[in-house]
Amino acid sequence: MEFRFFEIYRNWDYVTLLMQGAGMSAMLTLCGGVIGFAFAIVLSWARHMQIRIAAPLATAYVEFIRNTPLIVQLFFVAFGLPLLLGYAWPFWAHALLALALNFSAYFAEILRAGFRSVDTGQREAAEALGLRPITAFRLIVVPQAIGRMFPSLSSQFVFLFLTTGIIAEIGVRDLTNAGMFIDSRTFRTFEVYITLTVIYISISLLYKAAMAGLYRWRFPWAELGR
């Protein structure tokens, strides 16, 4: 019996499906990361500055997200919130919201460590020169914290990208969903998942290269100080 490997590439529809799935996974990860990072700055600022009411709420949120599985959060966002609030979104939008919430908690914890690493004397000196506390925090503390913690943020971002295959469970047509569909039609499981592995590794390496370039561009002083 003849053994023929990579048989799925003989069907252009399967190749197209994999490309579309990879694009969906990359897009949702990037958008979720940007939204989550913006929210993480607010969360970490509230905790770092010990804002009354906001700080305990931010702490509770971060601990809740970091101590529950992503799939539980995903199912709650996709099926629980629409039932409670009475709205209807496409599944990709539910996945984006769940990823953004998940990203924000992990990013917030990293940023909080970065904020604590900045000498408080710098913020106090800025305030003594007439800058408002929020302005001093934004111009003095935030850039240094992000620069110092950027490698950790990048690693966490790539790690979270590799967990996004879970969104296939709610029917989002991401890369994992595409692989599962092709496998169900061809029964070439080994071939399909080897292909998925190569694609996930390739996208991860692209993200790492992009993050490294952004780091050298935006934080050259941090690179020189290492």
TrEMBL record:
Membrane topology annotation: Multi-pass membrane protein
TM annotation in the entry: 20-43, 64-85, 153-172, 192-215
Domain ABC transmembrane type-1: 18-211
Compartment(s): Cell inner membrane; Cell membrane
Keyword 4Fe-4S recorded: no
GO cellular component, one term: ATP-binding cassette (ABC) transporter complex
Keywords: Cell membrane, Membrane, Transmembrane, Transmembrane helix, Transport
GO molecular function, one term: transmembrane transporter activity
CDD domains per UniProt: TM_PBP2 (cd06261)
Top-level taxon in the UniProt lineage: Bacteria
Main location as per UniProt: membrane
Single Gene Ontology BP annotation: amino acid transport
Family under the similarity heading: Belongs to the binding-protein-dependent transport system permease family. HisMQ subfamily.
PANTHER family: ABC TRANSPORTER PERMEASE PROTEIN, MEMBRANE COMPONENT OF AMINO ACID ABC TRANSPORTER
Descriptive protein name: Polar amino acid transport system permease protein
Organism: Palleronia pelagia
